[in-house]
Amino acid sequence: MCRIFKGYNMAYNLLKGKRGIIFGALNNMSIAWKVAERCAEEGAKIVLSNTEMALRMGELDELSKKIDAPIIAADATNYDDLENVFVKAQELLGGKVDFVLHSIGMSPNVRKHRTYDDLDYNWLNKTLDISAISFHKMLQAAKKVDAIADYGSVLALTYVASHRTFFGYNDMADAKSLLESIARSFGYIYGREKNVRINTISQSPTATTAGKGIKDIDNMMDFADKMSPLGNASADECADYCVVMFSDLTRKVTMQTLFHDGGFSNMGMSLRAMNQYSKDLAPYEDENGKVIYG
Fold it and tell me: Where, by residue number, is the active site (predicted)?
């Protein structure tokens, strides 16, 4: 049966017979959750992975039952855990993996509202380890155990703050820059040796559980929507894009940061945004009344 979504027939069996691992789904607000659903609808068999804590606090069991996907608990910062995921996933799925999604990111500095000129460096290290270095560990583990099939596809989710400064995004911008660099460097090696393609998708600001931790995320989303000719890309639309990137239709696309943001990344100032934000150019005050010229 084909899914009907906003009046369109959306199931084309693009991933029929393929096997994949989705890292980072927490609840139905997660982009990874939407990606897992869409991949299953397109015919893929999937393994889900997240931390033990996320399994206790989140709703992953619900997704697991819905799409008949086993769960393998893993700490994405622990190399041995990741290697175990790739070994067990092949056993559960009956062969090598065709696609992988890295949808993992967290910054204690952002959560605690530390400004970029007052970072806690232990927290910065944790931000980089969870949000970016975990991607390198994931790829290295997969390659060591030869888990990804030839012409496989690996994606990680990123954000335009890797290239441009956004108030409040803080050290997550550094993490996203590193994430994209890893995709390029590993993409060269994996592509040359195994024809595996590695890309990052730069998604519009999205109301996920992680996104809600960013200061003024609602205003950021509103601004991006007004700036983008096509408006913000939703989590469902991002899932559709991931399906295409996992499919055989994109076998020569690798080492790219692919912007899925309604055109935001190439805009300077739209008329809608200018009309909206020229109305009030008063200094911004934080919760303590301190003026911040953001």
Answer: 159 (proton acceptor), 169 (proton acceptor)
Is 72 annotated among the ligand-binding residues?
A: no
Q: Is the dihedral of CA 169, 172, 178, 179 positive or negative?
A: negative
Q: What percent of the chain has pLDDT over 70?
A: 88
pLDDT tens track for 228-270: 999 999 999 999 999 999 999 999 999 999 999 999 999 887 7
Q: Tokens representing 229?
A: 């000719």
Known binding residue 148? Answer is: no
Residue 106 corresponds to which amino acid? Answer: M
Give the CA distances from residue 194 to residues 148, 150, 179, in Å, rounded to whole numbers and listed in that order. 9, 5, 21
Is 169 a known active-site residue? yes
Helix (H) or strand (E) holding 291: strand 291-292
Dihedrals φ, ψ of 101, to 5°? -115, 125
Q: How far is CA 94 from CA 46, 81, 98, 153, in A?
A: 11, 20, 12, 18
Of 121, 169, 190, 293, which residue is the catalytic one? 169
Say which CATH superfamily domain 19-279 falls into.
NAD(P)-binding Rossmann-like Domain (3.40.50.720)
Residue 176 in marked binding region:
yes
- Cβ neighbours of residue 271 under 8 Å, at least 6 residues apart? none
Smallest Cα–Cα separation from 143: which of 154, 133, 132? Answer: 154
278 is in an annotated binding site: no
Token code pair at residue 286: 């934080």
The average pLDDT across 131-157 equals: 99
CB under 8 Å to 61, separation ≥6 — which residues?
Answer: 55, 71
Alpha-carbon span 186 to 197, nearest angstrom: 9
Distance CA 10, CA 33 (A): 17
Task: Quote the crossing angle between the two packed helices 79-93 and 134-144, to the nearest 10°.
Answer: 50
Catalytic residue of the set 8, 79, 151, 159: 159
Q: Where are the domains of the chain?
A: 19-279
pLDDT value of residue 128: 99
125 versus 208: which is more confidently predicted? Answer: 125
